[in-house]
Design a protein that fits this description.
The protein is an alpha/beta fold and 222 residues long. It has 2 domains: 62 residues, no CATH class; 126 residues, Rossmann fold (3-Layer(aba) Sandwich). The protein contains 7 helices and 5 strands, in the order αβαβαβαβαβαα. A 5-stranded parallel β-sheet has the order 3-2-1-4-5. Strand 2, helix 3 and strand 3 form a beta-alpha-beta unit.
């Protein structure tokens, strides 16, 4: 009887050790990935980048009361304006975003009005008001850009946490872009970062799953 009791204690200790190793390695693994993503989102706002563009795509996001530009969206527009004004070549601003079910006008139209109020000439603003996702923003914007002759040097402006996924999508449709992140208010940033991180993990589910599988194997072998 004592032998069986000792065996049960050893088994329990072994299981506890396996679980401890698994949870510890999982936390470390996910934390490293998240921190790398977070630092990328911060650095993308300040790293040196080119100042010569032909097009600047500004990604839309939800409107306030169905027609007003939100703080998040105005930050994107302000960044786009700054790039437009610093550009060594004449460039066009593509405001991209369709009309949601709860919106009175399209996000693109709201952004256009904001840009006009900031002194941007109307003939330098191009509306892309048919999209409803990040990918469709880029697909539709690419069609507009390719309809112009000459160079197609493009800046892609969106909130800092969103740049990585937007650039990933642009590469899939063969639209070379320089990703530029706009400021995000501190109160909004944590929740936005977490949502975007989860979205990225879904896109990279295979390599992420392989990492978790390796952790499981290590935990079993300990």
């Amino acid at each position: 009887m004592p032998f069986f009791s000792l065996g049960a204690v050893q088994l329990n200790n072994s299981i506890y050790l396996n679980l401890s190793v698994f949870f510890s390695l999982s936390v470390i693994y996910i934390s490293i990935i998240f921190l790398a993503f977070m630092f990328y989102s911060l650095i993308i706002m300040i790293i040196p980048r080119r100042t010569d563009f032909d097009f600047v795509i500004i990604h839309g996001c939800g409107l306030l009361d169905g027609y007003k530009v939100s703080k998040l969206l105005s930050d994107r527009c302000d960044k786009g304006i700054a790039i437009y004004r610093k550009s060594m070549s004449a460039c066009k601003l593509i405001v991209s975003g369709g009309k949601g079910k709860d919106e009175k006008i399209s996000e693109a139209e709201a952004m256009k009005q904001y840009l006009l109020e900031k002194g941007i000439p109307e003939n330098d603003i191009i509306l892309e008001d048919q999209s409803d996702t990040t990918m469709s923003n880029l697909v539709n914007s690419r069609k507009i850009i390719m309809s112009y002759k000459g160079r197609h040097l493009t800046a892609l402006v969106t909130s800092n946490y969103h740049v990585f996924r937007a650039i990933l999508y642009s590469s899939k449709i063969y639209l070379p872009c320089t990703g530029i992140g706009s400021h995000v208010a501190f109160y909004y940033w944590p929740s936005a970062m977490i949502r975007e991180f989860v979205a990225l993990m879904k896109l990279y589910i295979k390599p992420f799953s392989l990492g978790m599988l390796a952790i499981i194997l290590i935990s079993i072998l300990v």
